[in-house]
Write a structure and sequence with these properties.
10 helices; three-stranded antiparallel β-sheet; binds adenosine monophosphate; alpha/beta; 50% helix
Length: 224
Amino acid sequence: MPTLPKQPLNIVLIGPPGAGKSTIAEALVHERQLVSISTGQRLRAEIKARSLIGRAVAPYLDKGELAPDSLMDRLLRANLETLDPEQGFLLDGYPRTLHQARGLDGTLADYGRVLYAVLALEVTDEEVIRRLSGRRICEGAGQPFPVHIDDLASMLRCQERGGHLVARDDDRPDVVRQRVAVYHEQTQPLLDFYESAGLLRHINAHGPPAEVARRALVALPPAP
Ligand code: AMP
């Protein structure tokens, strides 16, 4: 019987805004030697660079809406294109709609890949609002990192490194409410989709990020 080529860890991370996706992604990427593909980060970089894509998506991010599926699909393909076939990835923030999830299977098949697991970060709406209203990004001190105004240690870390705090444009209260609503309407249905596929792992995302990262690592199924 022919043996299938060894599959790298191809992981999807799903969670509402403020669930800590990028922090948990960073830990997973480090521990399991994955490449992170963060669609939100990528879009913000395009907006900052005032590229054609950036100018096209800025109004969506500004309102807390999702960018068009067709553009996101192309963005994903462009990222997969550059990956070594044996290199695993962690998709942070993609897919976010059923259309994207269905498209992902086909896209991965085109690159000879299959999904290994889908990790769903679970956190209440109240906690999301609390986290995002106090969230800042420390910039100008190497790789930008998240800071919370209630977390003195993170504020000091930024200050000691000579960084400055900036708020994400889409962390304004009205936009946060819209992003949470969009998550419930458009992204939450993916949980059933991936549950039926037997790929879903639920992660309690309350508590310190290091603890949530540990839960996520434990939840990953063992390598085949
Ligand atoms: P995030 O950093 O993951 O919270 O994403 C920030 C914003 O980027 C979202 O609110 C959307 O406007 C946009 N975005 C990121 N990923 C996607 C996606 N897969 N599909 C559509 N829009 C996205």
